[in-house]
Q: What sequence folds into this?
């Protein structure tokens, strides 16, 4: 298996810059995700890794070998397309065997390897069918087999779960992870679904308009977002983001968010902010980090419940403060009704601040 | 309400009338007349002498006709297989390769070039070939031969069948080329990418992925062009006239010559129409077969031709 | 499972040198393929390039060396533009005019007749509609040559023999089913919603046809006009069969005669007249070729 290094990769199509000066180091044997909204350049990155596109600038290395200009045939890469791209006129067996047939592997060797990989991916009973006769989820497994049968050094997946329904997604997620760990193959997957990325990958690179926003573990993305885009993109339900002013009220430091909301500032954060010249920020708090209390406690503020949504395991409670809306995530068992007055306390270590202009995370000691 | 409806039908009637009249006069009536004429021995006097099935009996005894029959078979299938289908396919593949690697403009140049003969007035196309095949040193081929000190060859008299196959083939190839090119380039590029990642070079991709996926256009062109070739004779008439000595006379040309000339101003309308009716019969049967096979397929294949 | 991994994994990991060598080999294979493909295209296209090139060059040159290379630039081959090649020939410009009338006549009929008919068949309900569609297809299986003879009879009876009018009526008649079928296709693609909203806004059926539907099928009409014009201009068989009178000749018959009389005598005249004849089509072709290639190729030529 191989580690992949991307160095200053830029890809332009005419005047459109799809990928803008991206550098990434992708570790050997692990799953890395490229996450971003549609059109952010992630599929282009995948195709450059496969060798279908050549970078306009920059170099790609597989281990120590620079692979710019090396055709896909020689890169030993497996690619699973979002549409699977199974050859409709060939049986499942022939589809999977195709890469081996092209390498002129002897027939019984082919049969052995196809059956082996089909067993690992659990589609050995479908080998004689045609792609048109099997379901979407099964097609994907076939595509996976075809990618894996030549024992590639790198596995590339383009939106592996997007075409599947919710139930199948959970199963397939686990399947892919299992197979990847069994074979220990370096895997790069590309997706717009942050749940997909966060659950499947060891490391995630968030992309937007061809630029990497942050490259770290899923936990870090969730709890230490580098900028507002990452903060809002990751996490479901999305983070509460409120423009705010760091000021004081009745002698105590508060975040003033519009006319009707003042949130008390924990001391360590206040201390860090005193030193800064700015007073205007965007405040970020995840719904799951907002505690609801029955009575006033330190560092809490009050609000009236505007709406309650049941989300299965949790409830999403909506508070309105004039134009500002805050959402809190609580367990479903909690008894809560519209119109109730509640006290909200944000967890002090889970408060995020972003620069109002540059949208970058403000470092807070705490 | 009734007035509106009647007015509506009135408008429909009016809009359809011209088309109806023209098609009636110049298509339907002639079609019927062809049938009835074949049962006469009409000649240039245009008199209706009904003679029953005599023309058809005469066909069975016509010695030249059996020669013509074989000429037609050779011509149709030779041109078809060598040129219309094979060459058309090769041209489509070549131009799609060029379009992929070098860019659209070169590919369009060649495709436009091959379309040119199809849009040229037949007589001008004939002039060009008559020059190329000119039996004196002034022709292209013989001119080139004279460069090497060889004697001129009388191409049209010596290789008449090859000549008609070649000249019609170049025109026919453009039909296949356009159709196949469009079929090849409409194959989703993800299949091409998948094949590249699987390790296929261009030739392998064409063999294992592209060709199987254009099976239906291939069959369609073959079927459709068979019919076209069966009834085409314009270029043969211009370049070889059907000779020498009936060697390049195909069925449709034989019928034409029987009616309007050729070597003897025959005006044997009765016999000629009988000959053409045989063609009509074959045409109709073939049309019905295509309709059932291809239209049905078209309706069926909506979800299937390309899986995604 | 680990066993699977090591068994299949006999290929050593990436090394730059190995990759370079293999990539070079692939590049060489690709270069060879490109060479052969271009060679094929050029050699195969040679007859066409040389043929049409000759048409152009020979018309402007005195003679040809080795049958190929032009020598001596001249325009004397074009003297047919102002003098008759021999006294049996009709006036050239009269002939050209006839050709134009044929082409335009056919185009006009096709547009004026096929378009409304196609509109009706595509977008209106009336009894006998599906029968008409079936008829169109049945008629299409009567190839040109079979009707030639009876058309002679019909034209004779209508006293339209030896006239351009007769010829373009015949051609239009034979092309109409196809034209209607193609235009119908274009009409089918106009969305019903648009037409219906026109009716709702108060327009009559005729007004919606004129203001809403027609503009949308303009490309179809344009395509049909182009094909009809070229087809009419190029017509050979019907002209030489139905028109014997020299005053009604078209350029097809003219060039046909030139071949008969001058083929081995005056090649310059031959190519110049042919070039004159093909000129409008050639110009047309050059300017619209991109467009033409995307529209399906109709016609039943070999």
A:
């Amino acid at each position: 298996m191989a580690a992949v290094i991307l160095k200053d990769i830029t890809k332009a199509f005419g005047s459109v810059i799809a990928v803008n000066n991206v550098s990434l180091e992708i570790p050997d044997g692990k799953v890395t995700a490229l996450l971003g909204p549609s059109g952010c350049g992630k599929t282009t990155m995948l195709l450059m890794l496969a060798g279908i596109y050549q970078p306009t600038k920059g170099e790609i290395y597989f281990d120590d070998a620079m692979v710019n200009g090396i055709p896909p045939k020689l890169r030993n890469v497996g690619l699973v397309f979002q549409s699977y791209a199974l050859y409709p006129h060939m049986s499942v067996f022939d589809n999977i065997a195709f890469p081996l047939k092209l390498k002129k592997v002897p027939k019984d060797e082919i049969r052995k390897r196809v059956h082996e990989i089909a067993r690992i991916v659990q589609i050995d009973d479908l080998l004689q069918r045609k792609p048109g006769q099997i379901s979407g989820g099964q097609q994907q497994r076939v595509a996976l087999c075809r990618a894996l049968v030549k024992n590639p050094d790198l596995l590339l997946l383009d939106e592996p779960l997007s075409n599947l329904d919710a139930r199948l997604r959970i199963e397939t997620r686990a399947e892919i992870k299992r197979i990847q760990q069994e074979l220990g193959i370096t895997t790069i997957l590309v997706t717009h679904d942050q749940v997909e990325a966060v659950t499947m990958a060891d490391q995630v690179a968030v992309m937007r308009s061809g630029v990497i926003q942050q490259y770290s573990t899923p936990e870090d993305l969730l709890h230490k977002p580098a900028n507002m885009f990452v903060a809002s993109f990751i996490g479901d339900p999305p983070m509460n983001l409120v423009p705010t002013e760091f000021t004081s009220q009745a002698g105590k430091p508060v975040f003033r968010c519009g006319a009707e909301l003042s949130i008390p500032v924990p001391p360590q954060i206040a201390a860090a902010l005193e030193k800064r010249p700015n007073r205007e920020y965007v405040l970020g708090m995840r719904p799951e980090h907002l505690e609801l209390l029955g009575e006033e406690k330190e560092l809490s503020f009050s609000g009236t419940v505007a709406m309650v949504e049941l989300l299965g395991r949790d409830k999403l409670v909506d508070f309105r403060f004039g134009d500002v809306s805050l959402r809190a995530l609580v367990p479903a068992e909690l008894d809560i009704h519209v119109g109730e007055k509640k006290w909200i306390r944000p967890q002090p270590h889970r408060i995020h601040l972003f620069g109002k202009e540059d949208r970058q995370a403000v470092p807070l000691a705490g | 309400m009734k007035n509106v409806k009647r007015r509506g039908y009135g408008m429909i009637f009016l809009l359809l009338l011209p088309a109806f009249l023209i098609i009636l006069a110049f298509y339907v009536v002639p079609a019927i007349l062809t049938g009835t004429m074949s049962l006469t021995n009409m000649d240039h006097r245009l008199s209706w002498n009904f003679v029953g099935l005599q023309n058809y009996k005469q066909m069975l005894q016509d010695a030249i006709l059996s020669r013509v029959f074989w000429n037609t078979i050779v011509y149709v299938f030779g041109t078809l297989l060598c040129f219309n289908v094979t060459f058309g396919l090769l041209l489509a593949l070549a131009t799609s390769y060029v379009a992929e690697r070098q860019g659209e403009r070169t590919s369009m140049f060649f495709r436009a070039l091959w379309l040119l003969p199809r849009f040229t007035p037949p007589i001008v196309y004939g002039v060009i070939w008559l020059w190329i095949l000119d039996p004196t040193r002034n022709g292209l081929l013989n001119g080139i031969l004279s460069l090497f000190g060889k004697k001129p060859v009388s191409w049209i008299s010596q290789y008449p069948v090859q000549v008609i196959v070649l000249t019609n083939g170049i025109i026919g190839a453009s039909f296949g080329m356009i159709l196949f090119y469009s079929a090849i380039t409409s194959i989703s590029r993800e299949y091409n990418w998948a094949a590249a990642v699987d390790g296929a070079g261009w030739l392998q991709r064409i063999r294992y992925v592209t060709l199987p996926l254009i099976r239906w256009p291939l069959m369609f062109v073959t079927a459709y062009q068979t019919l076209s070739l069966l009834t085409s004779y314009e270029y043969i008439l211009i370049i070889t006239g059907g000779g020498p000595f009936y060697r390049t006379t195909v069925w449709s040309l034989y019928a034409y010559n029987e009616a309007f000339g050729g070597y003897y101003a025959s005006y044997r309308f009765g016999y000629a129409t009988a000959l053409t009716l045989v063609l009509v019969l074959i045409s109709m049967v073939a049309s019905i077969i295509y309709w059932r096979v291809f239209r049905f397929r078209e309706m069926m294949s909506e979800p299937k031709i390309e899986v995604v | 499972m680990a066993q699977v991994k090591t068994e299949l994994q006999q290929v050593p990991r990436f090394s730059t040198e190995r990759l370079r060598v293999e990539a070079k080999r692939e590049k060489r294979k690709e270069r060879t393929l490109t060479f052969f493909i271009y060679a094929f295209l050029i050699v195969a296209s040679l007859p066409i390039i040389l043929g049409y090139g000759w048409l152009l060059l020979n018309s402007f040159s005195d003679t040809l060396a080795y049958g190929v290379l032009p020598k001596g630039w001249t325009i004397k081959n074009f003297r047919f533009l102002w003098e008759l090649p021999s006294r049996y020939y009709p006036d050239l410009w009269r002939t050209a005019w006839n050709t134009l009338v044929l082409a335009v006549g056919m185009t006009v009929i096709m547009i004026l007749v096929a378009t409304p008919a196609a509109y009706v068949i595509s977008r209106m309900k009336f009894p006998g509609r599906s029968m008409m569609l079936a008829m169109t297809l049945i008629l299409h299986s009567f190839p040109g040559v079979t009707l030639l003879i009876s058309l002679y009879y019909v034209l004779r009876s209508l006293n339209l023999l030896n006239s351009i009018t007769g010829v373009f009526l015949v051609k239009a008649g034979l092309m109409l089913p196809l034209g209607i079928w193609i235009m119908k296709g274009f009409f089918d693609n106009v969305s019903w919603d648009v037409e219906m909203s026109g009716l709702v806004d108060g327009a009559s059926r005729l007004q919606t046809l004129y203001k809403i539907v027609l503009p949308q099928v303009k490309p179809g009409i344009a395509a049909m006009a182009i094909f009809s014009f070229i087809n009419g201009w190029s017509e050979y068989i019907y002209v030489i069969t139905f028109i014997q009178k020299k005053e009604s000749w078209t350029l097809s018959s003219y060039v046909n005669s030139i071949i008969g009389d001058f083929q081995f005598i005056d090649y310059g005249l031959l190519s110049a007249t042919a070039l004159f004849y093909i000129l409008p089509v050639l110009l047309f072709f050059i300017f619209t070729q991109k467009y033409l290639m995307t529209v399906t190729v109709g016609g039943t030529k070999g």
Observations:
- The mean pLDDT of chain B is 83.
- Chain B touches chain C through 108 residues (CB under 8 Å).
- Residues 63-101 of chain B form the longest helix (39 residues).
- The two ends of chain B are 50 Å apart (CA to CA).
